## 1
Amino acid sequence: MLEIHSLSKEFNKGTPDAQIALDQFAMTIEDGEFVTLLGGNGSGKSTLFNLIAGSLFPDSGTILLEGQDVTFLPEHRRALLVGRVFQNPLTGTAPNMTIEENLAIAYMRGTGRSLLHRTTKQDRAFFREQLSTLGLGLENRMNTRIGLLSGGQRQAITLLMATMVKPKLLLLDEHTAALDPQSATRVTELTERIVSEGQITTIMVTHSIATALQTGNRLMLLDRGQIAMDLQGEARRTITRQELLDCYAR
Ligand SMILES: Nc1ncnc2c1ncn2[C@@H]1O[C@H](COP(=O)(O)OP(=O)(O)OP(=O)(O)O)[C@@H](O)[C@H]1O
Ligand SMILES: [Mg+2]
C-alpha cells in the first residue's frame, strides 16, 4: 500500500521563478490497484514520481510504502521497492551494454545482490525466459547492445527490468508517448499483462484520455499539484471523455 500525506514541493522558492509543483498532495493506493493518472502539462505528475522514487525530496509531507516511511530514503535504497519506466526510451537502460548485461544489473538491483555478482548459467536461462515472454524475439539477441534496439524494443526491456523482480510499486511516466502507434499499443498490452500477472501496484501517467479510461481500475486527475478527480468502479465506468476534458479546463 502507498500512502501519501500532505506532500508539498516548491521549486525555486522565494524567487520570481517559484513553482508550486505539489500542494498538500494526498493519496492512498491499495495493493494491486492499477491507477491511470491524467493531468495537464506542469500539473505535478513527474514531480510526484520523483518524490516517490527518491530522485527528489519534498518540502513537507510523508510517503509510506508498505507502512515504511520512505520520504527521505535515498533513491538507490528505494530501487528494491519502486520500479520505474520513463517517457524517453533512452532513459533507464545503459545503451553501450548488452541486453543481458542490462537485465543482470536490474536483477541485482532488484534482489539487492552485489554488483560484483557474476551472471550464472541459471541467471542467463532466467533472462532468456523472461525476454521470450515479451514476444519480440529478443531472447535470441541477448548479446546485442541496447543502443541498437528500436524505441519500442527498449521500452519493452525497460518494463521487464522494472518488473523482473516484483516491485512494491511500478511507476510509468508516459512510457509509450515516444513510440509509434503500433509499438505504443504493443507496449501498452505488455504493460497490462505484466501488471495483471504480477498483481503489481501501478501508477501510469498518460495524456490519452482513452488509454486512461481503458487501462487499470482507478483513474485520477492531477491539477495544480492536487488530486482534482479520483474515480473507481461505477463512477469510472460512466464518466464521459467530455466530462474529463471539462475538468482540465476548470
Ligand atoms: N527541477 C525543476 N526545477 C524547477 N521547476 C521544476 C522542476 N521540475 C518541475 N518543475 C516545475 O514543477 C511543475 C510541475 O512539473 P512536472 O514536471 O511535475 O509536471 P508534469 O505534470 O509531469 O507535466 P508534463 O505533463 O508536461 O510532463 C512545473 O511548473 C515545472 O515547471
Ligand atoms: Mg511529466
## 2
Amino acid sequence: MRLRFRLNGEPVELDAAPTGPLLELVRSLGLTGTKEGCAVGVCGLCSVLVDDRPVSSCLYLCGFLDGSEVWTVEGLAAAEPRLVEAFVEHEAMQCGICTPGQVVAAAALRRASPHAGREEIRRHLGGNLCRCTGYETIIEAVSSYLVEP
Ligand code: FES
Ligand code: FES
C-alpha cells in the first residue's frame, strides 16, 4: 500500500503493509527511540503522536497513516528542546526504557491541556508505565515543561 504522510515535520511517501504496526515502520526508518514493551497496547513505551494524539504504535496499523501527521520522540525532542531538558533537569528517569513514551505523552498533554495541574498530569500519564516507579520526578518534569512559555 502506498502511504503519504508527514513524519517529524517532513513529507514521507513509501510502501508499507497496511496491517503492519506503526512501531515497526518508524523503527525501520531508523527512529529507534520508540520502544517496544508489552506489544499489546498496555505499557505506553511505544507512544507516538498521530495528529496530536498519543497512540500505541505497537497496535496502530500503517493502513490508517495516509494523510496523517506523525511525531516520534526524536522529532519532538528536536522541535521542542525544553521537553527533554525538563526530564533531565528533574532526573525523571532511572533505566530510561519508558522515557520516550513519557516524553511523547507530555508533548500530547501540552497540546491538549497546556495548563494541566498535577492531578491531570497524573491521570494523563496513567497509560505510561514506569517499572522503576519514578513517577514523582516524571510528574515534576512534565509540570515544569507545561508551565514554560
Ligand atoms: S509496546 Fe505498545 S503499549 Fe506496550
Ligand atoms: S525509568 Fe525504568 S521503566 Fe521508567
## 3
Amino acid sequence: MSLQSKILDLADRCVKCGLCLPSCPTYQQTLNENESPRGRIALLQGLAAGQLQASRSLHQHLARCMNCRNCERICPAEVQYEQLLDHGRSLLAEKYPASRFARWLKHASLALLSRRERINRLNRLLRFYQRSGLQRLVRFSGLLRLTNTRHLESLLPPLKTARHYASRYLYIGEPQGRVALFSGCLGTTLEQDTLNATIILLNRLGFSVDIGKAQTCCGALARHNGEAQQAVTLARQNLASFANGNWDAIVYTASGCGAHLLNYPSLPWPDESLRQQAETFSRQTREITAFLSEIDWPETLKFTPLHKRVAVHEPCSQRNGLRQADLATPLLRRIPGLEVGSLPGNAQCCGGGGSYMLTQPVTAQRLRAEKLKAIEAAHPDIVVSTNPGCALYLAAGLPASNIRIVHPVVLLAEQLV
Ligand code: SF4
Ligand code: SF4
C-alpha cells in the first residue's frame, strides 16, 4: 500500500466532529484550525489526494504537533492519529525535503543515537566541557547568546561516565523469574540512576535481569521525524537482540520508548514474518511500574520511612501512548511517611516529549512554564516521572530549585531496607 493510500485510509475515519479540539495544546494556544488535530488531518488528506501542494506552511503545521496524542485518546471515531502523522511526515519528507543543513542535522542526530559507542564518545566530550571549567567560561562569555544556543545548552544535565552493564544481574532471595531490560539509546549515560534502581529492585524482588548488548535506540525519533526506514532498521536490531530469551517480560523504564515499542508491528516491515516477530516482541514489553504492580512482593521486602512530599507527573506517552493509569502512586505508597499526590494539570503536555523541546523551543517552553507553575503551587520535595525526556526537560527549567525530579523506581530502590 502506498503512503498516500495509508494516509487516506486512516484519515477517512475522521468525521470532523471537532471533539478533539479543546484537548489539543497547539489549538488552545493559537485557535487556528490548521493547528488542530482535525485541521492537520484535513491537510494530510489534501496532500495525499494531490489537492494540496507540499509547502513550508504545511510542514510547519505538522512540525508543531507535539504528538501528545490527547486527540487520539478523546476521539470517538478512534482515529489512529499518531500513525497518520508518522505517515504524513514521511510523505512530506519525500515531497518537501528540508534544507541541506536541516537534513544533515537530522541524519547526524539519528546516526548518533543508533550507535552506543558514538553516544559514549559524545558523553566523554560533554563531560570534559562540564568538568574542565569550559562550561562556566562559555556561559560567561556570551557565546551562547551570539550563537543562539543558550536554550540548547541549558538542557544538558550533569553527566556521568557511561556505565558498562553486565549481561545478567542475578536475583536475590527466593527466585520469581527472569526479565530482559530495554535500556534504549541514552539509558546507560543519561538514565543510569533509573536503570541501576530497576536492576536493584527487580533483583530484590527475585528476578534476574538480562541486558542485551546488541540492543539499540527504540527508533521513535526516527519514526516521528519521517525516517520510517531507519526506524525499521533499529527495530530489526532490537528484535534480533531480544529474540532468543525466555523472559517473563521485556521491561523498559522510559514510557516514551515503550509507546513506540508497542507500535513496532505497525512499522513498514518488508515481510510478514518480521511483522509477526515485531508483534511477539511488542506483546512481551512491559512498562516498569506496570510490571511491578503485577508481580508478588515478598513480605520481607521493607522500606525505610521517608517524610517527603511527592508529586506524580504523568507523561503523555504513558497516559495516551500506553493508555496506562498512574501506577507509580500505589507503588510509592509502600514507602512509609511518603505523601504522594498527582501533579495538577497532568492532562497537559510538558513540551519535553521526543525532540519537540529542540525543534519547537518556543511552544515547548510555554508548555513547560505552565507545568513549572503547577509544580511550584504543589510544593513537592520530589517530582516523579516515568519518561526521562520529560524529567530532563522539567529539571532544566528548575536549575536553582531543591526539588528533585526522578523516576519512581529510584525512590523505591533508595528506600529499600
Ligand atoms: S480526529 Fe476524532 S475527535 Fe477529532 S475531529 Fe476527527 S473524528 Fe472528531
Ligand atoms: S497530538 Fe497533541 S498536539 Fe498533535 S494534534 Fe493531537 S492533541 Fe494536538
